[in-house]
Amino acid sequence: MSDFLTRLKAFEGKTLVPATWGPDAVNTPMIRHWVETMGDTNPIYLDEAAAKATGRPGVVAPAMMLQVWTMKTFAEKMAANAAAESGAGTGEPSVAEQLQAVLDEAGFTSVVATDSDQEIVRELRPGDVVSTTEVVESISDEKKTGLGTGHFVTTLRTYRDADDEVVGTQRWRLLRFKPTEAAASTEAAAPAPERALRPRPALNQDNLFWFEAAKEHRLVIQRCTSCGTLRHPTGPMCGQCQSLDWDTVDASGRGVVYSFVVNHHPKIDAFDYPLVVAVIELEEGTRLIANMTHVQPDEVTIGMPVELDWIDADPELTLPAFRPAAGESI
Question: Which domains are delineated in the chain?
Fold first, then answer.
């Protein structure tokens, strides 16, 4: 084993994030925001009677919200960013900073998230408080990928309740890599650096079909073949009847702006700013998050009729976007 790999392996088992409690207890308003935005109509999240009819003691939080309850607040994130920019800190680098420094020194400066696996031990209910810890589970030997050579860093986040009982885990994997030599030499020969690629989606067996359809300029919606319920985001099980059988239908491409934000910063080279990111409610009833095109930020309004557009970001990535519907006055 090389000295460098030995240094990397020494981080296995170390704690990246000590036990950190979420800023708020599990609560109904946040659950409501989540399910309305996601278009998840399963009544067990908001209706006590419906939840009890399934044998539960009451309403529960969606399983996919597990990470939400421990996320930092906006003020905490801004304070952390300000401290990092000013160089303020405790003086002793954290384990995460030490690991990053070792990888950076060896040239593994690029990063992409490859996958995230969650295991739910029990459903959370309003009033639960949740903490998380994150430990480095493993660091791979050097691997050659399409992006370049690098190391996969796998961490395990463990979520616990007030009784210190595990309620769920999340295995998170990143690839820290050096860009391929061909890409690096091309960039060096170019008169100006090429624009960065859009962030890559984390592809898995539950969503690959959706992105493959997008490459063909087809916006598809997953449909339960047992009860006919449409759902998005994609997933392995129907929230209505719990069936694992599904197919897809092609969306009409028409919808309305359900909600939107205008991003100004932090700026990422792959995007143009100001950047309009909207929740689009399709006429089929499902919602998805997409960019707005052919419209100025101050012209976007809630309820605006929109139609499908496409962003061919690069040969490997095509994403749906939406523009004002033909004839819409802006």
Answer: 9-26+61-81+94-189 (3.10.129.10), 208-324 (no CATH)
